[in-house]
Amino acid sequence: MPTDLKELYRVNPSVYYLRNAHIPSCFLEIQGQSEISQVDLKIAKGKIVQITPSNGENTEDIISYDLAKKLVFPCFADLHTHLDRGHIWERSPNPNGTFAGAIQAVINDKKEHWRTDDVYRRLEFGLKCSYAHGSQAIRTHIDATGPKGLATFKVFEQLRQNWSDRLELQAASLVSLDYYQSPEGLALVEHMNEQGHILGGVAYMAGDLEENLDFLFKIAKQRGMKIDLHVDENGDPNSRALEKVALAALKHDYLGQVVCGHCCSLSVQNTETSTRIIELVKQAGISIVSLPMCNMFLQDRKENTTPFWRGITRVHELQLQDISVCFASDNCRDPFYGYGDNDMLDVLSQSIKIAHLDKPYANWFKSVTSTPSRLMGVSSGMIAINSTADLIIFSARYFSELFSRPQHDRLVLKSGKAIDTVLPSYSELDDLIFSWI
Ligand SMILES: [Zn+2]
What is the distance in A from the centroid of ligand 1 to the CA of 395? Predict the structure, then answer.
């Protein structure tokens, strides 16, 4: 039985066994007591057709690869990114690491550099990284104000078409919510509706927030559009935009999908307030996406002061109420987050350490796989009979190994076939990023 998985990449057989796979039990329909199940998977014509305990009883004479307890995950789904800003750090760093510094740096970069070729190539660079790391679906927010916003959407639509055989791509607009009440904003809504995009925006705690939310839910309901908002990305306990969004969704009897990202201030509110807001979030059926890496980078940053607040929202309390909680990568090598590689394993690994998701791991692995996959409508994100064999095979055998080494040697299967997982070289973007030299 071959153990060298490189052979799988070279041969790409249409029927084969993956034997002695270690699968986190949360991904299996029949779950045992332990957090890891050791199983044999039979793959045929791109689908998983058989899952059996590894007990040496499968003697069928077909190609078999012994995974020797390597961990197998379903492919990732990255629910919240900003691919349009990505990979600009070297030309537009954040001078002081603050949220305000990030906003200004991106405004300047956009004014100076965002032309079709620049946006297309940086967006595609992010897609190449995501794909090689094992993502099957990505939702990006797009800076959507003004003519450049619409132009970025058109670049995204071209990429969505060019990558349709490899990735499910979704886009949401990023504007301040009052923008939708302007003629340009309404034109944007019509374009997004035609193209199947998602209504997004930043829900600021301003005096007109309720009015803006009323308008947003009205246009979403009329057109059957989904909503995906940035809320409360700050450490101010008085920032309760999440509560306002939940109240608006209930008021309008909105039955479509609402995702709220960040929700940082929820974790600095007192228990009475946060419990009340979490109850409303549950009633309104809102899903939450936390962006721990970006939040750690920006929140609680003050000059000459050591940060002590982690910036993440109350993920445990939300999950305990059966609210869907996802983690996502957010920004990547741009002024909002100076690091990252669109790698959802990195997101999961850091989230586990930042938010104590390991006692037990339980269902947290679903927060970067099954849960966002379901919200994006791509797959169940489970490892089940008849599901497409979109899988990631890591060299790690146990979770302590998985979350201690980077796993850049992972193997990614799409419909049962091994894909090329070589990451794009940073130098691909040199002529865009270092054009000022
Ligand atoms: Zn964001």
Answer: 31
Q: Is the pLDDT of residue 119 over 60?
A: yes
How far is ligand 1, taken at its centre, from the CA of residue 389, in Å? Answer: 30
| Backbone φ/ψ region at 253: left (φ over 0), alpha (ψ -120 to 50), beta | left
Distance 293 CA to ligand 1 centre (A): 11
Choosing from 233, 279, 401, 428, the catalytic residue is 233
| Range in 50-64, 114-128, 405-419 with the lowest mean pLDDT | 50-64
Q: Using an 8 Å Cβ cutoff, are 6 and 409 in contact?
A: no
Q: How confident is residue 3, by pLDDT bands cut at 50, 70 and 90?
A: low
Give φ, ψ of 385 to 5 degrees: -65, 135
Structural domains of the chain, ranges and CATH numbers in brackets: 6-74+382-418 (2.30.40.10), 76-375 (3.20.20.140)
- Please confirm, yes or no, whether 233 is among the known catalytic residues: yes
Residue found under tokens 């809504």: 189
Sign of CA dihedral 287, 292, 293, 296: positive
Q: 76 CA distance to ligand 1 centroid (A)?
A: 18
Kindly give the distance from the C-alpha atom of residue 103 to the centroid of ligand 1, in angstroms, as a whole number. 12
Q: Does an H or E element contain 64, and which?
A: strand 64-66
pLDDT digits (tens, 9 = 90+) for 268-314: 999 999 999 999 999 999 999 999 999 999 999 998 999 989 889 99
Which ranges in 163-259 belong to alpha helices (H)? 183-195, 209-223, 241-251
Longest dimension (CA), the chain: 70
Count CB atoms within 10 A of the CB of residue 10: 9
Angle ∠(288,294,295) on CA atoms, nearest 5: 65
Distance CA 281, CA 419 (A): 39
**Ligand 1 mean position to 408 CA, how many Å?**
26
pLDDT score, position 56: 73
Between 202 and 30, where is the model more confident? Answer: 202
pTM above 0.85, yes or no: yes
> CA 201, CA 197: separation in Å to the nearest integer?
13
The mean pLDDT of 376-403, rounded to a whole number, is: 95
Ligand 1 center to 390 CA (angstroms): 27
Residues 239/244/246/250 CA torsion (nearest 10 deg)? 170
Q: Which residues, chain by chain, have CB under 5 Å from ion ligand 1?
A: 330
Most confident of 127-131, 299-303, 360-364: 127-131
How far is Cα 19 from Cα 397, in angstroms, rounded to an integer? 13
